[in-house]
Design a protein that fits this description.
Elements lengths: L6 E6 L2 H12 L2 E6 L3 E5 L11 E6 L12 E3 L6 H11 L2 E2 L11 E4 L5 E4 L15
C-alpha cells in the first residue's frame, strides 16, 4: 500500500484572498469553507480525492518567518513561460530574489501573502476534469 497527496494545507492571514489568487493561477474553484477559518479549493468537477491535490487555506495570526521549507512549483499548460509569468504577475504574484542563480531557468515568485513558488520553464499538459462529475 502507499499514500498520495490529496491536499496541501497553507496557513495564511486571509484565506479568501489566497484562495482567489490560487484559483486564478491553477484554474481551481472554491470547494467550500470548513468552519469559519478554512477555505478549500480544487479542480472543477473533481474536488477532493481527484488526481490533483486540493489546497486548504487555514486562517492563522502567526506571521510568516523566513523562507518556506516547502514550496509549490508550477508549469505553464497553454502558453510559454514568459507569457505565463506576465499572467501570474497580473494576478498578484511578485518576483523575488532568494539567491537563485542568475542563469536560472525558473522564476521565483510570491503569492499575495509572500509564500514562495516557482514558475518552471517546461510546458505540461493540463489535467482534464471528468465531465461526468460536474
Amino acid at each position: 500500500m502507499s499514500c498520495r497527496i490529496t491536499e496541501l494545507v497553507i496557513d495564511c492571514a486571509d484565506p479568501q484572498r489566497l484562495a482567489d489568487f490560487w484559483c486564478e493561477v491553477l484554474g481551481y474553484v472554491e470547494l467550500g469553507w470548513e468552519g469559519d477559518d478554512h477555505l478549500e479549493i480544487g479542480p472543477p468537477g473533481t474536488g477532493f480525492g481527484g488526481p490533483q491535490p486540493t489546497l486548504l487555506f487555514g486562517r492563522s495570526t502567526e506571521p510568516k518567518r523566513g523562507k518556506l521549507r516547502l514550496h509549490l512549483d508550477v508549469n505553464p499548460t497553454d502558453r510559454d513561460q514568459e507569457a505565463e509569468l506576465e499572467r501570474l504577475l497580473a494576478a498578484g504574484a511578485r518576483k523575488v530574489d532568494i539567491g537563485q542563480p542568475g542563469a536560472a531557468t525558473w522564476h521565483v515568485l510570491t503569492d499575495p501573502e509572500g509564500n514562495e513558488f516557482c514558475l518552471l520553464r517546461r510546458r505540461v499538459e493540463a489535467v482534464e476534469s471528468d465531465p461526468n462529475t460536474r
